[in-house]
Design brief:
N-utilizing Substance Protein B Homolog, Chain A; alpha/beta; disordered N terminus; Alpha-Beta Plaits; globular; Rossmann fold
Length: 437
């Protein structure tokens, strides 16, 4: 993507386009950034999209990324040669995804995509966009049948990702892939220092929001903007996946303990720990900007912790020498368990990234283990579904550390780890609890 094409595109979104055309243009820019290797969150932060156009563009971009692989499959059969212009490719991917997701709106989608193409790169590709989309509609049934026979197009994940899940989850890989293409649930965590689940459910009902309880989480029947959630600004609740809410309970914290939350940003688990007990808590994150979000979240909830910027691998730079009673090691990972929330991840990741994450995880847990008091506990946590980052990582850690023993993950079971696979109620997570002898 050239600087010229990017700048000529931006004013069109705000100034001239019809609503859907503007959203398609916005989605094209976001998708072009991902195609260029950028994280979708970074692309959104850099975008000039505003208001309803921003929301609609995000929805289109997320839809296209969830259907990624499928869109490329269709383009490979609808084009005579690969596209060199990322913005054009992004526009076509967004439009094709919408045509599949909303077939009743086919005429509107094509019309608005052509309108968007008129403003894209001086309108040079208007005819091409029109031809590609109309050819898709004419060949729809045949193309869908071909896509169903292609693993990447059918499952909408990279081939290496599919193969790894087949190996690590031979009984569940199909359900995992299907869940990864769905819209995620919106779960809330009640701030028990300010309200109760019963009272908060009543507030949701009064606001016309249906919800159900999953474990201790409150899952909304239908996701809504946080502005519609009663008491959010006042700190009565936080947005946190039901599976993620298990971490703080599993760590078994008690009043007066000294606790380390490593890789803590944006602070959801930090806050949950503080809601459960009066702790001396250190929240550590390597990213200064993300660390600021920890403070913002704690302030909203009426909580306090010592927030430090630093790398878990280098305790000498931030540790004062006083041992911790508990450590939450929510380490960086592939995010394969939350890919429906971050659909760009499955297309930005590469097979060798998993080994790189595993090396970083090993460095962090080996380093912070030295800061744990004898008898103390460390909860190892990821939002990954890959064994190299989970079971294999923990087994290797215990093999390296003679003073480490694994504890049953919950009193009622002898299981040594807890695995959540993504479903309608929660994302995918992995937990293992270790104690220092």
């Amino acid at each position: 993507m050239t600087a010229h094409s990017s700048e000529s595109f931006r004013p069109a979104v705000a100034a001239r386009s019809a609503p859907l055309a503007a959203a398609l243009l916005g989605a094209a820019e976001l998708l072009a950034s991902v195609i260029a290797g950028r994280n979708l969150d970074v692309a959104l932060a850099a975008s000039r999209l505003l208001g309803v156009t921003r929301a609609a563009a995000m929805d289109l971009a997320y839809g296209a990324l969830r259907a990624g692989g499928r869109g490329d499959f269709m383009l490979s059969r609808l084009l005579t040669k690969p596209l060199a212009e990322p913005l054009l490719r992004g526009l076509l991917l967004a439009a094709l995804a919408r045509l599949e997701q909303r077939p009743a709106d086919a005429h509107t989608t094509v019309d608005q995509a052509v309108t968007a193409a008129t403003e894209l790169i001086n309108g040079r590709f208007k005819a091409l966009v029109n031809a590609v989309l109309r050819n898709f509609l004419r060949q729809r049934e045949a193309l869908l049948a071909q896509a169903a026979a292609d693993p990447v197009a059918h499952w909408q994940h990279p081939a290496w990702w599919i193969a790894r899940l087949q190996k690590d989850h031979p009984q569940d890989w199909q359900a995992i892939l299907a869940a990864g293409n769905t819209h995620p649930p919106l779960a809330l965590r009640v701030n028990r220092r300010r309200t109760t689940s019963a009272d908060f459910l009543a507030q949701l009902a009064a606001a016309g929001l249906g919800a159900r309880i999953v474990d201790e989480a409150i899952v909304l029947d239908k996701p809504v903007p946080i502005e519609r959630i009663p008491g959010f600004r006042e700190g009565l609740c936080s947005v946190q996946d039901a599976g993620a809410q298990r971490a703080a309970r599993l760590l078994d914290v008690h009043d007066g303990q000294r606790v380390l939350d490593v890789c803590a940003a944006p602070g959801g688990k930090t806050a949950h720990l503080l809601e459960l007990a009066a702790l001396e808590l250190v929240a550590l994150d390597i990213d200064a900007a993300r660390a600021m979000r920890i403070n913002d979240n704690l302030t909203r909830l009426g909580l306090a912790a010592t927030v430090k910027v630093g790398a878990g691998e280098t305790p000498h730079a931030w540790w004062d020498g006083r041992p911790f009673d508990r450590i939450l090691a929510d380490v960086p990972c592939s995010a394969s368990g939350v890919v429906r929330r971050h659909p760009d991840a499955k297309w930005l990741r590469r097979p060798d990234d998993i080994a790189r994450f595993a090396r970083t995880q090993r460095q962090i847990i080996d380093a912070v283990w030295r800061t744990l008091a004898p008898g103390g506990k460390m909860l190892y946590a990821t939002c990954s579904l890959f064994a190299e980052e989970n079971e294999q990582q923990v087994a290797a850690f215990v093999g390296r550390h003679a003073d480490a023993m694994r504890l049953p993950i919950a009193p009622q079971t002898n299981a040594l780890d807890l695995k959540f696979l993504p479903d309608a109620d929660h994302d995918g997570f992995y937990y293992a609890l270790l104690q220092k002898a």
